């Protein structure tokens, strides 16, 4: 009895070939950091310098590819392809979708770097010879660069790939699915496992880095409120344990809805905080720099995108410690954020997805960074007389020192700490969910002990890396794990493009020349049907007496050719009848007809020169197919006409099946 209960408690849905290698890497690094902290710090510094010196160009090239790839897709013919079946509709209203994308742009990072990044670039510019009157302008430019379209292009590549293959081709909502065009069914084997291992490790270290930022800023905030005496490692341990316990309890106890509400409230608090700084800060200066900053960013977009500072050796160190680390950080977060935006984007077109994902969160980031960053620069120049520039060397406390120049300082400190705490909790909670999903091939739910396990592991790694070298160690681990996943993302771009080319060709495939000559000369019957309004009973009669009889004749003739076909009838959710030919190596051929309800327009109801229409709704027999293409109305076809139409579709199916390029779409249903 006890043994059975114990085994039930510790059952797992981990995919061993993904979870075990990932955990081996993560746990080994964590233990090494705990017991050999100094050696770890030295080793990480050596690796970091090697990457900075030899591979910075690769990070720049990868991110440039992502930006150009998404822009190309948005303006190409592929932009109109839906993330789902052709007739699928978005699950969320446009406003709700926009609101959730807006929420995706928020996080601990904006709280930590809102003041810190602009002030750091202002105090220590990339170009040491920059004129004083240009320091603020260039500081804002590089802040926009790091938090703008490039970051969201990284997220967009993963999100688009996940959404496309999951919703349009019914593959698992997992990174491995994005490799189907080149791996085919091998995505379920070793190669797919390797992809998910890199995705899991990258996500884990990215989340650990973000939580590290939250820890050091929370401890600094508590010091500013005199709740703790110093921002020491001992207090950081307590903060991590308290916050992670709350996050894990949220993950395992069904409090997700409460946390969701708290998260929504947190976004409102963050916006109110931003508005407070805008109103009580140098408002005109902020708005002016926002407008000018957007123009400056757009005009320098191309040069910023491709710049590796190959001709400016004096700026190489700044470039590595800022831009390259940011690209690595965003890449490490790509599975996490990408999955979030994929989950909410079913039914959107590719063009709609890309434009919204690139512009909406980035625009909010620009506004946030301007309100906090430009305010800090103005205060430093006109009130603090350089004091904030000095604090820029310690970004952990900079935000709270910034608040001392505003009214209600204590209130602002408390509000900021609350915002950081909730972001901390929701990031950990969501991170646990995402890692469970990657480690179990996209499973929706997981045993509770797994959430506890991830929480302990995140806490252990964040604290061990903080102990062995602070945030620098966390950033270096992100830098290391992001590189292989960045290459995986480049391959995702290739696979997605390959799939979209096939998708476009498939949808545009026409009937063969011979089938176009098939016709039906019973025009009088057609005319009678055109002027007759179809009621529900008419469609019922049409399906049973015309469509079904046509299918029955086809079943008999197909059987004579040793092809077994079946007729399926349905009454819910819509009345339908379908002809199905089952295959082992191909998607089943289906030709179905369903009764589709259609609202009659008021204009047609009031029109005199039309058939006598007095119904609010009419019904039409509309086709549907096994490959989810959009169907069409066949109410004007006779029995023989329907047989001809089925044969057209069947000929098309066989032609497409013989072409190997269409394996993705012609694969078996399961």
Describe the model:
By secondary structure, this protein is mainly α. It has two domains: about 15-505, Amino acid/polyamine transporter I; about 515-665, no CATH class. It is about 70% helix and about 5% strand. The chain has helices spanning about 1-10, 15-35, 35-55, 55-75, 95-105, 110-125, 130-145, 150-170, 180-185, 190-225, 235-250, 255-280, 285-300, 300-305, 315-345, 350-380, 385-390, 395-405, 410-440, 450-470, 470-510, 515, 525-530, 535-560, 600-605, 640-655, 665, and strands at about 565-570, 575-580, 590-600, 615-625. Strands 1-2-3-4 form a four-stranded antiparallel β-sheet. The radius of gyration is 30 Å and the shape is elongated. The two termini are about 40 Å apart.
Largest sheet: 4 strands, antiparallel
- Specify the overall morphology: elongated
Largest beta sheet: strand ordering: 1-2-3-4
Total beta strand runs? 4
Class of secondary structure makeup: mainly alpha
Q: Quickly count the helices.
A: 27
CATH topology of the largest domain: Amino acid/polyamine transporter I
Query: Can you tell me the residue ranges where pLDDT is under 50 for at least 5 consecutive residues?
Result: 1-8, 512-517
Portion of residues in helices? 55-70%
Instruction: Give the domain tally.
Output: 2
Strand residues, percent: under 5%
Named at the architecture level, the CATH assignment of the largest domain is Up-down Bundle
Rg: 30 Å
CATH homology superfamily name of the largest domain: Amino acid/polyamine transporter I
Span of the ends, CA to CA = 38 Å
User: What is the class of the largest domain in the CATH system?
Assistant: Mainly Alpha
Protein name: Glycine betaine/proline betaine transporter BetS
Keywords: Cell membrane, Membrane, Transmembrane, Transmembrane helix, Transport
Pfam families: BCCT
Membrane topology: Multi-pass membrane protein
